[in-house]
Design goal:
The complex is a heterodimer of chains A (148) and B (1003). Chain A has helices at residues 17-26, 48-56, 77-94, 112-129, and strands spanning 8-13, 35-40, 61-66, 102-106. By secondary structure, chain A is of the alpha/beta class. Chain A has a single domain (8-129), classed as Rossmann fold, CATH 3.40.50. The longest helix of chain A is centred in the middle third of the chain and has 18 residues, at 77-94. Chain B is of the alpha/beta class. In chain B, the strands form 17 sheets. In chain B, strands 5-2-1-13-24 form a 5-stranded parallel β-sheet. A 5-stranded parallel β-sheet of chain B has the order 15-22-16-17-18. A 5-stranded parallel β-sheet of chain B has the order 32-31-30-36-47. Classes of the chains: A alpha/beta (148), B alpha/beta (1003). Chains A and B meet through helix 1, strand 2, helix 2, helix 3 and helix 4 of A and strand 4, helix 2, helix 13, helix 14 and helix 15 of B.
Amino acid sequence: MSEFEPKIVAFFCNWCTYGAADLAGVSRLDYPPNFRVVRLPCTGRLNPKYILEAFKRGADGVWISGCHPGDCHYIAGNYHARRKFMLLHHMLEAVGLEPGRLHFSWISSAEANKFQEIAREVVEKVRACGPNVNFRKAELDLGLPEVA
Amino acid sequence: MATKKVVGAALVAGGGVAGMQAALDLANAGYYVYLVEKSLAIGGRMSQLDKTFPTNDCSMCIISPKLVEVGRHINIELLTLTDILAIDGAEGDFRVRVRKNPRYIDMSKCIACGECTKKCPVKVDNEYNELLDKRKAIYVQYAQAVPLKYGIDAEKCLMLTKGKCGSCQKVCPAKAVDYGQKAEEAVLNVGSVVLAPGFKPYNPKDFETYRYADDPNVMTALEFERLLGATGPTMGHVVRSGDHKEPQSIAFLQCVGSRDINRADNGYCSSVCCMYAIKEAIIAKEHAKYDLQVTVFYMDIRSFGKDFERYYEKAKAKGIRFVRSRIHTVQPLKDGGVRFHYVTDHGQSTTEDFDLAVLSHGLVITGETQDMSRKFGLETDKYNFAKTSSFSPVALSRPGIYACGVFTGPKDIPSSVMEASAAAAAASSKLSSARGTLTRTVNVPAPMDINGEPPRIGVFICHCGINIASVIDVPKVVEFAKTLPFVEFASNTMFACSQDNQEQMVKLIKDMRLNRIVVSACSPRTHEPLFMETLAAAGLNKYLFEMANIRNHDSWVHAGNPEEATRKAMDMTEMAVAKAALLTPLTENVIDVDPTALVIGGGVAGLNAALTLSQQGFKSVVVEKAEKLGGIANRILSTSKDEDVGKYLDELQAKVEADPNISVALKAEVGQVEGFVGNFETTLTNGETVKHGVTIIATGALESKPAEYLYGQNPKVLTHLELDERMKARDEAVDAARTFVFVQCVGSREPERMYCSKVCCTHTVHSAVHIKKKNPDARIFVLYRDMRTYAQKEDLYKEARDLGVIFVRYDLDSKPKVSESGEALNVEVHDPVSGRNLLINPDFLVLAAAIVSGRESELAMKYKVPLDEDGWFFEAHQKLRPVDFATDGMFMAGICHYPKPMDEVVAQAQAAAARAVTVLTQPKMTVGGIVAEINQAKCSGCGVCVAVCPFSAVKIDEAKGKAAVNEAMCKGCGTCASSCRSDAPILRGFTNDGLFAQIAAAL
């Protein structure tokens, strides 16, 4: 049986971590192809519901990454994100989410190597958790998005 | 004679951070700018830095948005690889002759894929990494370079030198290589010139005793900076270049090539080395996964800028050791280390070994810049820095030519940025009649109405030559895209960004009535604006666009796994299509801008800001709470360049009074404040109401009243300003006095006030020299902790020593003791050199009393701008936006920002005016786009969004009891949208629906 390949939804802020991922590309630093990136203007935009939505829809892991403290393009968005994240992380752990499924990091737009390193680490940790069966909502309609 | 011709364009020479800022400010103020850079790309020295002090911001992260802004600006013409040959004519109408050197690459074709570099057989020392590794003969200076176009090193290229090879031309998928390009000369007609040629780091190879030239364990600080850099030769891993071992101990040697007239001929202080050494020491310790020992050998630590002293203290707390000693000899050790013999502060001779020595080399003016000064007739000082006066700090000796950055003296990034904005103001001061005559605007057709239409999505999948297509099965992704909901059209394209594809896209949008566009190609960070312009040109709202980054995030990083890479590209395209289907057209609204400024504070800063604005044709109202103008400068005798401050203030005041654009309200303060950028309304305490588009805060600061050294008890104890006032009044007692003691850092650099007041050391040596020149027999003692006569002010310190002024160092734990016995004043201080206590009976004891902020918290609240913990107004960004507040339309100048000398105050005032002009010059401002709005039906008026908004853009509308977003102030971060319990705020362009759809499509 081949090794389990987790699906991971990543939320990156436009200014730092998304830039680091761009630079990792420019530098041809390879990492596992398990991520699907949602670009946000700022991690401050990250509504905790997105994390729940990702797990509900069957993501095996979620990775959130933004600017280092003090580097936020919008002054303090990353601090707001961190607070929300910590709270949600504790809550999700309390209801049985394995700690290895949810990740948070600070990667600046120049830290391509750090990006590669953490990307690999996140995949390994999520892989170790196995498939997300507990949080996936089976009967969820996975069809077309509704049009407003 | 006919009316003098005035050209509405300027030339900026030098594409470093100073040149870029000057170019942006000029272009945004309505002038066409030629930005001339001699290398392949802009970015300058700052692009080489890993981090910046004192915030440890990543240098590349903060500079790259600026690079992109310059690169894309419609009114900045970037001329790379260009030399300036001659400047003829006069202010208002210069003719600048330039030579554009060949790049051997057709910039319109190069897609920066890097295939050429891979195939190039020639390896060349890499200047960007300070020669620590190799680049190829065809190269980009660094990955984020602007313009991101390759260039060929003509001296190294085999084809250009020997006529053989040609492999880059063979592999280039865009056919961009052109070995036949020739240098071209051109004449540019401009009204003024700004010179920002920067510096080169001092090369310590001539210091034989430091062994830099032959010992790999001795390196320069810039080399070390590259080692620390994530994009450097070791990717941030600190190893010695000789044996690649991790050093266990590092020593920094300060003042290499600075404050040295024996070997380097550079008497000046380079101003930045203490701080960058501390920064590199901190970062090196952070990078090391082991207990790295770092020692800094110094003469005086000069942490004189905003937040610098705390940074220094932080370094000490992290275990970085500071040793006051100048190392004279580095002795290489057999096992690869270095040995120093040095004398400690207490006179003991010591030997110590280190694994690595880093030389903190100073900043020097290049030979090229010296030639330029000579050729263009510019006066320089003996160190080749441009000559300027304290009162016009960016104007050079030849009218119409201005300077900024290190060319006028060694300085850090924020000071360079400040000067750059000041130079932009000065350089346009005579051109305002021609403002807007040469600038270009983009004409876009009115967008078509797509209301009620179902989404009709067009998808373009880019091959990017072979960059994407060699890994990803592009046709497969195209076929998949065609199956996605609402996709009307999907196709592959060789280069999505090419001109012909853009035209094709416009045609398809019109012919097929496509109303959403998705491009799967490279990064939206670099290419989204280009495609958005294309949409606008096709008459489609430019926000109906989404990108999937299948190159940087896919083909380039998953080259070894084409199958998964293709699957990922399909998913990414599906995510983009899902989001695109839900996009709605976003409107941009225009608001009127009141072309008037309110300047709060009538001191040197406020008055200069108002005068600078007036030169640009804008009115201002100056509010001053005192009875007269001039502020604290009224008490100052002269500048460090010996210029008469009283005379200057008289002239300044006369100019202000005669200026029809400036009205002054004395004995008035700010009462009530309403509004936002473009439309402020401030009621003054005198009842006057001012409507203004921008606000400049220039409220100054105060000299503290010392609580020690018998100040206020003994009449012989004065502060700096009190001495100045007495000297101004030709006080006989001061003239007759024979002995003076100056005490430095009175109330500064102490735990309760952990900052340096910046101006006192210079003021003290200036006063001492002044007294000594008048009365050579006067005995003057200066009791100091670190002498901080930075930049060319170091010459004054030397002059004072040459004149016989005695400098005695003291530590915070052994401060001087002052007592009185009868008429006599006794000052006792421990002299660490002789190890003895000195007793002095001065006629005057002069205290360098700390400069303290006025803590204008009420004013700060009214305009919703922050103060830092010391009470200084807090700028939007300490490095790159030193005069702006984060709140739009708000600016600051002078010592309400931080203590600084006269020349820096004037520069900051001109800078604030330049920044203000970029707002005032637009009769209407465009606001909107990706900003938040409030769904009124869901809002309960709880105020969470108001509390989390970093830009004060959300307010509760008291009448409705609901939140409302001010589009002019919103920056679109979305923090409000993710913090509301009821999802009332909506971030346009990043809506919940859109993001949920993306998440669903991802899985």
